[in-house]
Specification:
The protein contains twelve helices and 15 strands. The chain has 347 residues and is α/β, with parallel strands linked by helices. The chain has an eleven-stranded mixed beta sheet with strand order 14-13-12-11-10-9-6-5-4-3-15, covered by helices on one side. β13 (286-291), α12 and β14 (321-324) form a beta-alpha-beta unit. It starts with a strand and ends with a strand. Mean pLDDT is 95; it is low at 343-347.
């Protein structure tokens, strides 16, 4: 299997060129073609000589792969299915992941996957139900940006697709480096949001090493109740996650938000709203209320619109910025918690 160039840093691309007997500046050209122009073959790199391209192709693979399935929602959301090959238990296995493009007026946000499946085991998430089948490489992650039809239209990304990003921190941080480096996509870190359920060691590393936005999956302010739907609460309690976040400044360009999926009769009443206000008091943040999309064998339904509005208003009246997130792509199983790496086709 050839080594993939996608996901390599500028210095690594220069080294790859040197390994083929080429001048270091060819590495700069590779970066421009792959990350700037988002090409899919060496033949498209017209300012690199034919013999040089042949030498590169003999030793390396770009790492791009077209989606093998797609679905289009009635609200304009697009979902793409990508083949991946992941190492799992010492064996390389073929799998698939989904990426979602969410349009909003002149914006296009990519919801990107970082793992095939997930090992966090959140009971309300379809991805968590299927278990973990391996980590994606940086090439697998970046391919989702490059190989979709909207590649040239993207205005931002959220690492909220399949997997827990901080459980695959090495590949995710490398992908973010490519996205934000001048020799890469050249994006501002403000265009990148990383979601996590609170893996403390890697969350601390992310906060220290990156300037992107953070979104924490909270879903219940009471430890025992959160533990009943999110096993991570036992290893990394929410109170410790909040204590870590309080050590950082979110009053400037970097933001932290909390994702709160609303379950009827479980976390949608005055008691939970008041506990959430107490938990987050004094922290510069916002809370996003998310409609729950029903999945099999989970006992709760989505909270009513009235309950969500009452909850939002109570948080806002107590000094928290709280909004109800618009649900997108539910009809193609592309909404929050519904991604499962399944082949689907809809137009």
């Amino acid at each position: 299997m050839k080594e993939k160039l996608l996901g390599k840093t500028l210095e690594e691309l220069r080294q790859a060129a040197a390994e083929c007997g080429l001048k270091p500046f060819v590495g700069n050209q590779l970066a421009g073609w792959m990350y700037g122009k988002k090409v899919h073959s060496f033949d498209e790199m017209t300012n690199i000589g034919k013999d040089a391209r042949a030498a590169l192709a003999a030793r390396f693979d770009l790492g791009t792969a077209a989606p093998v399935g797609s679905a289009l929602s009635s609200d304009g959301t697009s979902k793409y299915l990508f083949p991946v090959c992941c190492e799992h238990a010492g064996v390389w296995e073929n799998s698939a992941v989904e990426a979602v493009v969410i349009p909003d007026q002149d914006r296009r946000t990519l919801c990107v996957s970082s793992q095939a499946g997930c090992r966090m085991g959140c009971r309300f998430c379809m991805t968590g139900r299927q278990g973990w089948h391996g980590n994606l490489s940086a090439a697998d992650i970046l391919n989702q940006f490059i190989s979709i039809p909207e590649a040239g239209e993207l205005t931002g990304t959220v690492f909220m697709g399949m997997g827990e990003p901080l459980d695959n921190y090495g590949a995710v941080s490398r992908a973010i480096e490519v996205l934000t480096a001048p020799w890469g996509f050249g994006w501002s870190p403000k265009r990148v949001t990383v979601s996590t359920i609170g893996l403390l060691p890697n969350l601390r590393t992310l906060l220290d090493g990156q300037r992107c936005h953070i979104a924490v999956s909270l879903h219940n302010p009471f430890p025992e109740e959160r533990l009943s739907i999110m096993p991570v609460q036992k290893a990394w309690p929410l109170k410790d996650v909040i204590a870590l976040l309080r050590r950082y400044d979110f009053s400037g360009q970097r933001r932290v938000s909390f994702e709160y999926t609303m379950f009827a009769g479980f976390n949608d009443d005055k008691r939970h709203a008041d506990a959430l206000c107490h938990l987050l008091r004094g922290l510069e943040c916002r809370v996003n209320l998310i409609r729950f999309h029903k999945i099999p064998d989970f006992p709760y339904d989505c909270a009513t619109d009235f309950a969500m509005q009452q909850f939002r208003d109570r948080l806002n009246n107590n000094g928290l910025i709280c909004t109800i997130r618009t649900s997108r792509g539910e009809d193609i199983l592309a909404a929050c918690g519904m991604l499962a790496g399944q082949h689907s086709q809809r137009s």
